[in-house]
Each structure stands twice: as C-alpha cells, then as structure tokens.
Records
---
Amino acid sequence: MKLEPVRRLGRTIGEILYGMALHDMVRASMRQRGSMEHLFLLITFGDLVGVPIIPPYYCMRLLPFIVPQIHSWRRRLLRERDLVDMLF
C-alpha cells in the first residue's frame, strides 16, 4: 500500500487548517516583530540617518551584530511612504 497519497492528504489538510486558524496571527506577529526591530534600530542607531541621538557605550557594543542589517534598515526608513502603504 502506498503511503504517499495519505501523507499528501495529511499535509494538505494541515496547510488548510494552518491557513484558517494561524496564518493571520503569524503575519501580525511578524509585522509587529519587524516594527519593534525597526524602532529598536532607530533608537540605538538613529544618528546614522540624522536623528540626533547620542550613542551610548552599549550601542557601540551592539554595532557588530547590526552591521548586516543597516543597509536594508536605512532603505526601509528613508523610502517614501504612501497612504496605501499604511493599509497593508
């Protein structure tokens, strides 16, 4: 007896239940995580984009971990926003 169709059916049912029950919560939590990360970077490294914040010692200790994210963060922060962007 082949188990492949049964596994595929189980996976499909699992994906349907995930989409019905959890997908919106996961998207909302990922959006909130991104927003909190964005705010954290702005507070700690705002001087990179012109926000007058005096960087404390601890921000400089975090700098090696933040360096890979700085380019994309600056692009997200400085891009033009439209009213439609706030809806999604």
---
Amino acid sequence: MTRYNAPFEIHVHGDVPLREDVGYEQIQEALRPLWQYAGARSLAAAAESAYEDEPGIRFDAPSRQLQICWTVPGGEEFRQVMEETCMALNDIAAAGAPLEVSFYDTEFDEEDESAEAEARDDFMMCFVGPTPAAIMQVQRDLLVQDVVQLMERHFDGSELGEVVTAIDKLFSQRFDALVNSMQLGKPPRGHGGSSGHGGPRKPRHLH
C-alpha cells in the first residue's frame, strides 16, 4: 500500500543486540509490522530505505546486531506499528536497546511557510529488551547521559554524583513497584518516552 500523499517521512534508527539462537526467520517475523506497513511481502522486500544513503534494515551476523536506519512514508498510525514491533523484538533481544523514531512533516516547506508556521515534526523513543529490568537500564543510561550533558554546561562533571544517585533511586523505585505489582511476569511493553510537537526542524538523519 504505497502512500503517495503520506503526511510524514518516518525514520527509524537503532541497533538491537539479538540472542545467539535467533535466526533470520525469527527476525522477519518480529519485524512483520514494519515490512507489512511498507506494503511488502517479506522483510527482504522492505529492507531498503526510501533514501539510498541509508543502509535500511540489516542483520549483522558476526556482531548479532539488528541494524535499523530506515525511512518509510506514513502517518500517525505508525506509532501502533512501532508498539507491535517492540513487543516482538522483546522476545528475541539479548539486551536492552533504544530505537529512535522521527516524524518529518512532508507538507511543510521552510521557504514558503510564514515565520509563525511550525512543522508537525515529532520524535519518540522506543525501548526493547528481554526483561523489564533490561529496558529500564537503557532508559536510565540515556536519562543520565542527557541530564549530565545538560548540567555540565553549568557544573563540573565531578559535582553531579548526587544527581546520578537521585536518578538511580527513581528507577529503583519504579522497578520495585513493578515487582510488587506482580507485573514482572508479563511481557514488557518495550515502548516508552515522551514526544513533543512543533518547534525547529531536526536534521533528517540522526546518525
């Protein structure tokens, strides 16, 4: 189902480490929501990105890495597609990993639009992993990285130990709450983060 008038170009970017016992058929099945959304009949048929300079969807067997740098036209319903994809990737992932999803407004022209106009660009972070703990670890590491980079504009890195400790405490409380609520045995959602609308446009490539 080719989307000639799709409101967005959607770019998915990230590397997911896979278990040693995972083969190509399992990868293809896990990524079924993506390649079906692209209108293909198989992963191989959809693996190529909309842009030639992007490697698309590849599996690097020596490193056991699923590498995604892939753009597809689409709309807001792609968020549900990513939710389903992340749930499936949880079952074959060897460790936690983030996936960046960027929505670029195809109808916005910076040269033609007025100064007040804003693109409908959007961004979301998704997380996958074999366990809720693995997903939370990735979320924690990214948050620490972002907070430290922001605060190092004003403070020396050696002064930020208490900030990192506070972040660790918050994630420990969240994990304890998950265990206590008896949800640990359920498949992790593998999807989280917030997204914002409007504002200055980001570069198409995130790598």
---
Amino acid sequence: MTNTASAETSNFWGVDITAPHPRQDADLLSQLNFIPGLKEILLLRQVHALEHATVWVLSERHVGNAGYATATQPLERDTLGGLSTDQGFYLYGQVNLADLRKAVPLALQRLTSGEWDLAVHPRCGTNLSVGMFLTAGLALGAHLLLPRGPIEQFLGLSLAAVTATQLTPDVGSLVQRYLTTSIPFNLAIEDITATTDIWGRSAYFVQLRWKE
C-alpha cells in the first residue's frame, strides 16, 4: 500500500487550510496553556498518529542486513496492535526489537515529511467506536420514524446496521484524521524497550517526549 498526503483537501484562496502545520500544536499550547490536561491531550493525539504509522511501516517492509529494503515480504499487519498513552505507545505482536527501533524513526520522519495518511489506520479502535455510534444513532432514528409494526422495525434496524457498516470506514477515517490523531511534529523518541503492560501482557514500549 502506498500512503501519501491526501490530495483531496480543502483550499481557501489557494491555501490548503486543512494541511498540518509544524507549529500548530505548539502554538495552541502556548495560547491555551491555562487549560488543564491540554498538553497531555495534544501529546496523546501525536503519539496515536505515530503508533499507526509504525504499524504501517512494519507491515509493508522488513529489515535486512543493510536496513530497510523495498522488495519485501510484508509483515501481517493483523497480528500487530497498539495502545497509545501520553508517555508513548505499547506495540503488541511478533516484532523483532531491532526492526522496531528502525521502524519508529522512519515512521516519524515519513509522517512529518508529508505522508499524513500514515496517521490513519483502518483497524484503529476509533473506527469501532464510530461504528457503534452510527449504528445506535441510525437504529434510534429508524425506530422513531418508522411504523411500530415488527416487520417495519426489523427492516429499519437492518437498514440502519447496513448503512452504518458502509459509512464507518470513511467517517472513522475522518474522525481519526481530524480528532484522535495529529501529525507528531513535537515528538522525540526517548527509548524503545521490551516490557509488559499493566495487564501483564508482553509488549514493546516506545517512550516519547514533547519537544518544541
């Protein structure tokens, strides 16, 4: 899969008003630093984006003796999972630590260089939440608008479920792009280690910090 910055962005007087800017989060923090927890929220969004980009990089490439190769056997991305925090992210799956230590800085470099689509991943939990929200909302709407007969209600519920399934990928991607992730212009990599999470599961932890 090729991930490039989306060409379908909004423009105003020839200026892309949706394009990420290197100072956007830093400027927001300097202006609204009186809001409790704002820095942690901004950090979490950037960490979330880097988590996704790392999974993409690990999925599409493997590491050989000379580093990343272009002709590769992709790692099965369905075996990889992540969990973001404001301190960094956990990565789960069969990954070599040396490979991960090469993938994370590469993912960070590609994201901040313009491959913004790497911040969005179809298996993100955001999509699951969006799907549940859409299904519940459409089902409630169908229940209120359609006759109370069992056949009509069943057809309405079925239509709501099908419609939500069709809408979820696109809506989920938009929510990820503009709400739950942010391009990590302010992240610096501290350390990458093998560890266990708070539930005792084996994982790797990519420790990150905020930089101006």
---
Amino acid sequence: MSPLTEIAFLAGAGLLAGAVNALAGGGTLISFPALLALGQPSISASVTNAVALWPGYLGGVLGYRAELRGQRRRTVLLSVTAMLGAIAGSALLLLTPGKLFDSLVPWLVAFASLALLAQPWLRKRFGGDDDRPPSRWVHAGAFLGGCYGAYFNGGMGVLLLAVLGMFLHDNLHRVNAVRAALSLVVSSVSVVAFSLFGPVRWEAVAVVAPASLVGGFLGTRLARLMSPAVLRGVVVAFGLGVAAVLALR
C-alpha cells in the first residue's frame, strides 16, 4: 500500500470500529486485524489498538449524554468497580502470557451474547430496582468485565451490556449508555498502562484515534434509531460473530 492508501485504510477501520463499539462493542475485531494487515507485530498491534480506540469510547459517552441523565450515582459506583477490574486486567496482560485466558475468550463472549439474548427472562428473575443502588452481583459483573476488557478488548461491550441488562431494571438504551461509560473507564485505564509500558505505534494512533471518535458519536445516533428489541438482536448477533471469529483465530 502507498502511504495515502494506508492512512485511508486505517481511518476507515477506526471509523467503523468506533461505530461498532458505540453500538454493541467488538470494534477491536475490525481495527486490530487492520493493524496486523499493515505488518505490525501482534503485541504492538494490540496495545496500539487499545490506545487508538479510546476516543471512540469518549464519542460514545458524548452521544449518550441524554440517556445518562439521572444515572449519575449508578454510573459512578459501577465505574469505580470497573476501574479496579481494569487495573487487574492490565496487570495480567503486561505481566503474564495469559495463554489459558486467550483460550477462554471465545467462550466468554459467547456466554455474554447468550445471556443478553435471555435478558428479558433474566431481568424478571434477578432484576434490580431503579431506586436502589446496584447490587453486589452487578458489581461483580462490572469488575470481571473491566478485567476482561483491559486484558482483551474484543467483545467487552457485549459482556458489560449482558451483565448490566441482567441486573438493572431499566430501558435498554439507558443501560447501553451506562455500558458506554464503563467501557470508557476501562479503556482509559488500559491507555495509561499501555502508554507507559507497552510498545505503542503512535503514528497509527494519530490516524485511528480521531476516526474512532467520529465513529463512536455516529454509532450512538444509529443505536438510538433502533427499538430495544432490535438493538438486543443486533448485539447478540454481533457478539456471536465475535465469538466465532475468536474461536477460529
């Protein structure tokens, strides 16, 4: 590829990845292969991807400002829990090879997708109340989601949305807004850790990051146009696709 073609290729991947992350999560499976296709080593591509997609998560939160109103306490409490999980996940990635964890990733994403599919029934069985603080179960899920997302970003949004949908009795769009906020928190922890200790390719970040910001904002607009049932179906289908791709890696 010529330099201009590479820039256009990375910008397109960043735009699409940011939109998918805002809509469902899993944009990593678009931008990460794009970096690999340009010849970057896998570890460098992974940490570069994590840093480059951070603006996309920010764009998602900005796009969900209306849905986040009235959820400040819930979002702050769960963000602290997700941050602790992300710290643990970042340390796990930087300090250990994690081959066993890699083998579990497809199963985790598939489980999250099927849990989201069963969300209406699970909400009736375990559902929380808008007027009460988040239960210990949703905090446990937020911690594990943060750990998973920092270690391997692919499918993080699917996992978080499934957990939140199980235990928060609320409209799916409002729950998805909280998911976007937690994803931003987890991504922020990863950015700090990988910027300090990982082999980030900053020239690629300079192209993918602004594109993912625009994609994240546009993805929230697209999600808002869908009914909760359609949005759930899209996320489940995408999540199962993510699991299949990861299983074939």
